[in-house]
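#struct-help
A.M.: can someone run this one for me? Single chain, 361 residues.
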Amino acid sequence: MSIDFNDYNPKTLSGVAKDAEAFAIRDLFYAAKNDLLCILSDGMSLTQVQTVLKAIAPEIEVLVFPAWDTVPYDRVTPNPHILSQRIDTLSKLVLENDRKKQRIILSSVGAVIQKLPPKKIFTNTRKMLKVGEKLNFDDFLHYAVINGYTRVEQVMESGEYAVRGDIIDIFPSGSEQPIRIDLFDDEIERLRYFEVETQRSTGDIQFYNFDSANEVILDNNTIKTFRSKYREAFGAAGLKDELYESISTGKKYLGMEHWLPFFYDDTLPTIFDYLPMADVVIGIDAENALKAKEEAINDHYQARLDALKISNPMTEVDTYRPIAPELMFLSVKEVLTAVHRQRYCILSNRVLPDTKDVIDF
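D.P.: on it. Structure tokens below:
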């Protein structure tokens, strides 16, 4: 591949069939000198590219950063597995930013357009447990609660934990299996993976680095920030909302992630802030998908505003008060501006004549 990512002039790779995106991305990765951020049109394209890359280039480290599986301004929390993937990737980008080896970061338009938690939450929430070291039982359970883990009777999926006597079962972000923590008094006697279905151990480990299970951290600072921003945005009318009352008491609320900007003092970063030096690949139809996503965000926001006008906040405690789109999402113009600040290449399935900046794949 004769593309030179050291040249800031935008390049277009033409004649790329949809099924060949992964092959083009592989070749562009070998031509790049930095991490490669790939913005694909949707989640299906992301999964397809990930699968093919694993087969044709198993030596390349690929991080996956999917979009939430919810619509904008939804009432439900994103799937725990998706949250786990996102948190695992963001944690690695923050905590392994001095590594020399290049990586491919596969993302989608839906993920890129959405703002993200501050980087500091990933440095502040990482917690290492090691066999033979002391562990305060109550402190660790408190850590699990404020970092988004949900207590259950039996651990089944990412973001859950269970307590049985001196044993803590927990399914960490980024792990394919849950971990069983065996305590002897206040000492970690054993750490081991186990299968969800059989509950049988699959192997011992000597240590593990735990990260948050949610993009919203519910500690004293974030609760205080949320209360202040919610009051500022919605006034006294919102003080009896179930969301406001639940967060005020430190309890998770279904779909609270859709008010992410209210939990943090800082202006929320984007994936481009996490990858300021990365070279960027714009997938086939990604620009059209970006425009469609912006329209969908605005439509959902307007629908929530219309519903709010006919609701009765005095009797409806679960009144949905949407935050302004610019707080949570980038505009098409902002995304393209961010891309243009970095070296980038556009994949096109059209056959275009070769020029200085167009190469026929």
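A.M.: thanks! DSSP finds twelve helices and 15 strands in the chain.
D.P.: also worth noting: The radius of gyration is 22 Å.
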